[in-house]
Each structure stands twice: as C-alpha cells, then as structure tokens.
C-alpha cells in the first residue's frame, strides 16, 4: 500500500492550531475496511479520502474528485474542516491548476475555491428548528450544568442539537466550561442527536466575533472537535437569523481554536472561508 498522506491544520494559518485532518490521495480503489482502519490509525477527528472519479484523472489538472470522511469509529456525511484540508492539499501541495474544485460527497457536490490566502467552501445551509426542552433537558444539563440557556434548536439534516447560552455570558464562560462529553453517551441513546453545539453571542463591534461556539460529538468518537465546518452550516443559519446579518465572523473556542469567515447566501448555501497549514507529508 503506497498512499500519499498529509496532515493539515484547518481554519488557522499557524501549525498546531485549528483542526487537524488527515488527507489521503487515492490513486486506486480502496476497500471499505481499509478506509476505517486508516482513519482509526490516524486517530484524528476526521480522515479524508480523495479519489479520482475516472481513468485519466489527475490530482494536478482535474477539477472534480470523490471525497469521503471517516472519524476513528465511522464514516460521516459531512465534514467542513477535512474538506478545507483536502482542498489545501490539492491547491497548495499538488498545485492544482483549477480555480474551483468540486467534491462529490454524501452531502452532494461541495465546491472549494481560493480567495487570496483563504479557501472558501460552498456548503449546504442547515437550518435548526425550535426543540422541545423536555426531550433533551438531561443532555443539556449534563453539558452546561446550571448555566442559563436562552434557546434550544435541532437540525434534522445534521442531527445536531444547538444550545444557545444566555446573552449575559461571554466567551470566557464558554471557554472555561468543563464538559464531560463521554457522559452524553449514557444519556442520549436514541440516535436523534449525533452532535451538540454550545454557542453564545459575541461582540461584533469593530473587528470582534459575531458568535462563539464549541462542538461535541462523542457519538462519532469525537469528544470535542477543535473547529467544525459542518457545525457552522447550522450556526450560520441560526446566527444570521438572530443578528439579521449575512456576513459573519465566528470563532470556535476549543483549546486549539479557529476562526471562520461566513457568508450566508440566498440560495440555501453558505460560504465558509478559512486558512490552513500543511504540517506533515508522507506515504502510507
């Protein structure tokens, strides 16, 4: 097995921050079991597999590729940071000559383009709808304790539960919150919730961030994800509605942290822009 392998830190321009993803370039077909074994071996929140769609495709010249994402325990239907990492490998390492790259995925076609020093992802906008508190009260209590909750929403497309803390709290409260995400597994066993988003309003005056977030997905084997593009497909819809804005600046305040530039479009899509740093190159 000779598979080019890269580790890319996404949504940052500094190595060892942002969200790391492994990216594999597949010249040939790879069996299902090997996809999962490689992702488990990499032990990052996601490992991306870029594959050629037809004979004669070239990682430098072709503009359309297949893309799949695996956590250490399972395949996932959408992953923003590993898509950005995949585009970074094609644009920056393989020197792909196209201005736009299209990925064929479980979530449909996703496009990535270069804009100055950022890569812009074209992702589906995923609305979240009001959620009956009683159904998820125990899960929320396990996540935030006695903190005041302002709003609870659910995104059926992503199976993400969005919990918005009171506007009286700031970034520091969210950052300092001690969350035992492993405990979520003993509370939510129905399969309805696969990810928990905690968010709080930011201070958008000047160059401040419009909102902050953290993301937990122990159901996929990821206790806390450092920076999550797919969660921001939900957050973008929510905060655009709450703030009455289409252009948003977000920060996911995990220990590694990362910044996302967001543009909510009128066609049910969202552009999420971020930087990247390639930190490892090798072969498997």
UniProtKB/TrEMBL annotation:
SUPFAM superfamilies: Diaminopimelate epimerase-like (SSF54506)
Pfam families: PhzC-PhzF (PF02567)
Translocase as UniProt keyword: no
GO CC list: cytoplasm
Keywords for this protein: Isomerase
Family membership noted in the UniProt record: Belongs to the PhzF family.
Name of the protein this chain belongs to: PBLD protein
Source organism of this protein record: Leucopsar rothschildi (Bali myna)
Gene: Pbld
């Amino acid at each position: 097995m000779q598979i080019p392998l890269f580790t890319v830190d996404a949504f940052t321009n500094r190595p060892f921050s942002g969200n790391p993803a492994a990216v594999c370039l597949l010249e040939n077909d790879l069996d299902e079991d090997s996809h999962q074994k490689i992702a488990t071996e990499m032990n990052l929140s996601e490992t991306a597999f870029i594959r050629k769609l037809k004979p004669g495709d070239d990682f430098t010249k072709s503009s359309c590729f297949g893309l799949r994402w695996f956590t250490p325990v399972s395949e996932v239907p959408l992953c923003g940071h590993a898509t950005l990492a995949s585009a970074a490998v094609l644009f920056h390492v393989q020197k792909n000559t196209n201005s736009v790259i299209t990925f064929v995925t479980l979530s449909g076609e996703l496009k990535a383009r270069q804009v100055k020093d950022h890569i812009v992802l074209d992702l589906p906008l995923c609305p979240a709808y009001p959620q009956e508190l009683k159904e998820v009260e125990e899960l929320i209590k396990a996540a935030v304790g006695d903190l005041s909750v302002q709003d609870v929403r659910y995104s059926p497309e992503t199976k993400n539960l969005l919990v918005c803390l009171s506007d009286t709290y700031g970034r520091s409260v969210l950052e300092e919150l001690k969350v035992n995400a492993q405990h979520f597994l003993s509370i939510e066993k129905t399969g309805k919730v696969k990810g928990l988003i905690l968010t709080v309003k930011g201070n958008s005056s000047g160059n401040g961030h419009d909102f902050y977030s953290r993301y937990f997905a122990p159901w996929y084997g990821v206790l806390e994800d450092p920076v999550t593009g797919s969660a921001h497909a939900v957050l973008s819809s929510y905060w655009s509605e709450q703030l009455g804005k289409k252009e948003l600046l977000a920060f996911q305040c995990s220990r590694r942290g990362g910044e996302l530039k967001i543009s909510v479009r009128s066609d049910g899509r969202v552009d999420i822009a971020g930087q990247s740093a390639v930190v490892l190159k090798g072969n498997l």
